[in-house]
Design a protein that fits this description.
binds magnesium ion, about 15% strand, about 50% helix, eight-stranded parallel β-barrel, globular, 2 domains, TIM Barrel, binds sulfopyruvate, alpha/beta
């Protein structure tokens, strides 16, 4: 079964795909271990991992390579965050071919202009492309996919850009008309009100996708109650958890003048060996090394 079919099958079976952000094969494996349905190959997380801002600085190749490695190690459908599609509709044609070949199940492409600025930053420059231009990019994505199950998610940043509910709905309808399989609507409001109002007004057939980072009151139960959401993305919790854990551990080692104080709060070496598959290496050594 293709990655896209697997994603669609989960959606049909449970009514909601729950994706966890990841920025490395190891974080994707831990998300799989925790029981999430899919991996969000987040542009924000990968940029942060490289220590650079999420402003189209990380290249398509870097993101694509990491997507491929996360597909390989996690075994879960990967939803690739391709930002603006790395340029215009011509760049999108190439990007879709590459991401599908890398084994991604879906891409999310947003209607901002290239280079983009990360969405949740206060006072960020949020320039959008024209509706017709973005429809062309969606049509390019559809034309480029080989497997019709490969999921194309169109993301509108109208609410992020402060353009209001009417513009967000107008764009979402236009993107569905251009052939998007799902509509991601992003918001940086501190409560779910704006998104819930959008969902109530949404009368399209395409399921919605949400990234409720700014409004953490939005639980799985509350999303399910809305009835129109097919993809729920926990947007950046892998990288934020790592930053918190590493800071705490590093500070403690500096404070204590040694590593004796952190043993209880970090993963054991055996745990990491297990994640790396050292058990299999030992078995293979017995089998093949003579
Ligand atoms: C990402 O995780 O890269 C996203 C979500 O696109 S956000 O950073 O909230 O825009
Ligand atoms: Mg992103």
């Amino acid at each position: 079964m293709s990655a896209g079919s697997k994603l669609r099958e989960t959606l049909a079976r449970s009514g909601l795909v729950e994706a966890m952000a990841a920025h490395s094969p190891l974080s994707a494996m831990l998300a799989a271990e925790a029981g999430f349905d899919a991996i969000w190959a987040s542009g924000f997380e990968l940029s942060a991992m490289y220590g650079v801002p999420d402003v189209s600085v990380v290249s398509m190749t870097q993101h694509l390579d990491m997507t491929r490695a996360m597909v390989d190690r996690s075994g879960l459908p990967v939803v690739a965050d391709i930002d603006t599609g790395f340029g215009n509709a011509i760049n999108v044609l190439y990007a879709i071919e590459q991401y599908e070949r890398a084994g991604a199940a879906a891409i999310v492409m947003e209607d901002k202009s290239f280079p983009k600025v990360t969405s949740l930053i206060a006072g960020g420059r949020q320039d959008m492309v024209r509706i017709e231009e973005f429809q062309g990019k969606i049509e390019a994505a559809r034309a480029a996919r080989r497997d019709p199950s490969f999921v194309i998610v169109a993301r509108t940043e109208a609410l992020i850009a402060g353009l209001g509910q009417d513009e967000a709905l107008k764009r979402a309808r236009a993107y569905e008309a251009a052939g998007a399989d799902m509509i991601l609507v992003h918001s940086k409001q501190k409560t779910p009100d704006e998104i819930e109002a959008f969902a109530r007004a949404w009368n399209g057939k395409a399921p919605l996708a949400l990234v409720p980072t700014a409004y953490p009151q939005m639980t799985v139960a509350r999303v399910r109650a809305l009835g129109k959401v097919g993809l729920l993305i926990w947007g950046n919790h892998a990288i934020r958890a790592s930053v918190g854990a590493m800071r705490e551990t590093f500070a403690r080692i500096r404070r204590d003048g040694g590593i004796h104080g952190v043993e209880a709060s970090i993963a054991t070496v055996e745990d990491v060996f297990d994640l790396q598959g050292m058990g299999r290496v030992k078995d293979d050594e017995k089998r093949f090394l003579r």
